[in-house]
Design a protein that fits this description.
The protein is an alpha+beta fold. It has a domain at about 85-320: Roll (Carbonic Anhydrase II). About 15% of the residues lie in helices and about 25% in strands. It has helices at about 35-40, 65-70, 75-80, 185-190, 210-215, 235-240, 275-285, 320, 340-350, and strands spanning about 85-90, 95, 100-105, 110-115, 120-125, 135, 145-150, 165, 165-170, 170-180, 195-205, 230-235, 245-250, 265-270, 270-275, 315. The protein is globular, with a radius of gyration of 23 Å. The structure holds 2-acetamido-2-deoxy-beta-D-glucopyranose (NAG) (2 copies). The site of one 2-acetamido-2-deoxy-beta-D-glucopyranose (NAG) has 4 residues, from helix 4. This is Carbonic anhydrase-related protein 10-like isoform X1.
Length: about 350
């Protein structure tokens, strides 16, 4: 398969995200229902369903187009202009020389996997003394890893929420942490400034199993239905990360309700690998209970959101690596501050300029 579309410089390594073989984005057929239908349906929600947290889906009349309508607290899902996921366009990336390497603590964690009926969610035990710290990169604070979401497709051609030049990976693992220097936990931090970091790992299919990912995939059979959970132990999140210091970063939102616009996204520039067997086990998970299994849990990706005026920055120095002329934040021109004396001040006043 040859590359389609314009060719972009890749980072030094051949299997990085930028430089992936591209294919046209899939246009998912989505159901659009008039607002009347939602209102009519809201009237029929059983009173026992007290928690909004449980009543949303990835399709139909409780799907992404309606998240902002079904719960007034989730207004950002429909009105927000700094939403996620987005399509990363290689040609619009801006190299930022101030971006540092990302730091993630390497020690083992324990926690549990949950089938919530919407996603497969990984919850990290918070009681342990040794929290996994996430810092560096574009971050100004230390964040504490709290949870992860697994988004995947029921077929290979879809799955990930973020895309790279339109390419959708078969799956994406998103690791969320909260700002532990300013806030106590995720539920407090998600509403607040600089509250959340999300690290995105793209998954690609390969025969060779990834031992770290296996800690999670070996429990898939125990979370086949909504409400089921399974503990895991001895997972090193650092060891799960792909072998690269390169990433793309932008300011966005959680990709699930309430679409909080307090999230710094970091998308690592190499995929990690999942086997066909593991993906098959994942695709057997269901949205419902054993009695009413409903549909498979997969295809749980929120549609792409417009970037609007946001910039996606990268620490990949295309210019240095390829000798090509890409947009960059290195300065070619500099401002100069004039000495500030009584003389200058009167001159400035005359000319109407500051320096
Ligand atoms: C994470 O950061 C906190 C605060 O600096 C520290 O007490 C803790 O030991 C760190 N965790 C690890 C695993 O280094
Ligand atoms: C999160 O922290 C806030 C503020 O300390 C507290 O009121 C709330 O109960 C905590 N929530 C959870 C789920 O721990």
């Amino acid at each position: 398969m040859s590359r389609v579309g314009p060719e972009f410089p890749t980072s030094s390594s051949p299997n990085s995200l930028l430089g992936q073989k591209m294919r046209p984005p899939l246009v998912a057929a989505r159901m659009r229902l008039p607002l009347v239908a939602v209102v009519a349906l809201l009237a029929f929600i059983p009173e026992s369903l007290t928690s909004w947290e449980e009543w949303w889906t990835y399709d139909g009349i409780s799907g992404p187009s309606f998240w902002g309508l079904i719960n007034p607290q989730w207004g950002l899902c429909s009105k927000g202009r700094r939403q996620s996921p987005v399509n990363i366009e290689a040609e619009k990336l801006l190299f930022d020389p101030r971006l540092r390497p990302l730091h993630v603590d390497k020690h083992m964690i324990s926690g549990s996997l949950h089938n919530t009926g919407q996603s497969l969610v990984l919850r990290v035990n918070q009681d342990s003394k040794h929290h996994v710290n996430i810092s560096g990169g574009p971050l100004d604070y230390r964040y504490q890893l709290q949870e992860g979401y697994i988004h995947y497709g029921n077929t290979d051609g879809q799955g990930s929420e973020h895309r790279v030049n339109g390419y959708q990976f078969p799956a994406e693992i998103q690791l969320y942490g909260f700002n532990a220097e300013l806030y106590h936990n995720m539920s407090e931090a998600q509403h607040k400034s600089q509250g959340i970091v999300a690290i995105s790992l793209m998954l690609q299919i390969r025969d060779k199993p990834n031992p770290e990912l296996h800690v999670l995939t070996s429990s898939f059979g125990q979370v086949a239905y909504r409400g089921q959970s399974a503990p895991f132990r001895h997972l090193s999140v650092r060891a799960l990360l792909p072998d690269t210091n390169h990433y793309m970063t932008y300011e966005g939102s959680t990709t699930h309700p309430g679409c909080w616009e307090t999230t710094v996204w970091i998308i690592l520039n190499k995929p990690i690998y999942i086997t066909r067997q593991e993906l098959y086990a994942l695709r057997k998970l269901m949205q419902g209970s054993p009695e009413t299994p409903k549909a498979p849990l997969g295809n749980n990706a929120r549609p792409l959101q417009p970037l609007h005026h946001r910039t996606v920055r990268t620490n990949i120095d295309f210019f240095r690596e390829q000798g090509k002329n890409c947009p960059k934040m290195y300065k070619d021109h500099y401002y100069r501050a004039n000495p500030w004396s009584e003389d200058n001040r009167s001159q400035g006043r005359n000319s109407g300029d500051m320096p």
